[in-house]
Amino acid sequence: RVARDGALWQLFSYMFIHADLSHLFFNMLGLYFFGTQIERRMGSREFLLFYLVCGFAAGVFSFAAYWFSGAYLVVLLGASGAVYAVLLAFAVYFPTAVIYVMGIIPVRAPLLVTIYAGIEIFNQVAGRGGNVAHLTHLAGLGAAYAYFLIRLQINPLAIFLHRRRR
Questions:
Q1: Is 80 buried (19+), middle (13-18) or exposed (0-12) by CB count in 10 A?
Q2: Rounded distance, CA 93 to CA 147, Å?
Q3: CA 83, 166, 121: angle at the middle one, nearest 5?
Q4: Segment-wise mean pLDDT, segments of 10 residues, the chain, 166 residues
């Protein structure tokens, strides 16, 4: 509908529509755990701008990639691209934070983002994951990286590599 009917607002509104309650729940859980910390660090206005810009950029990138690959009937739903952006922001601002995966496996935030990115790349390339928009997750990470570089003048990669040496 975006291209055929000129429904350009869907490049933005897709972030606010979810497939079902569990999809909404897990996106909002991630937003709550990581987003509250990022909002405190950035401030509410900057966080809102970050979230919306990264979510929009992830949607635009995904639309373009699907369109040019011939996948015209893809339906994109959910805040996952923006939530992945928030996860990258958390790792940038709190690089020594330890997150307990499944409540038991301690992983530092930058390593967790790297692992998630690797999983998303693998699933995108291997065609796994059914109705999960792995490309949108990766686009959210990429948008956050660009946002940090361009707007905030912070290089996430330099922060990640600096912390590994210690």
A1: buried
A2: 14
A3: 35
A4: 59 78 89 95 96 93 79 74 96 95 92 92 79 85 96 92 56
Residue whose token pair is 């792995």: 134
133 CB-side CA count, 13 A: 31
Alpha carbon of residue 33 to chain centroid: 14
DSSP 15: G
Sequence-distant (6+) residues with CB within 8 A of 100 are 106, 107
Which residues, including other chains, have CB under 8 Å from residue 51's CB and lie 6 or more apart?
35, 82, 85, 86
In the chain, at which residue ranges do the beta strands (DSSP E only) sit? 98-101, 105-108
CA dist., res. 164 & res. 159, Å (int): 9
Q: Which residue has the tokens 């990639």?
A: 65
**CB atoms inside a 10 Å sphere around CB 23:** 17
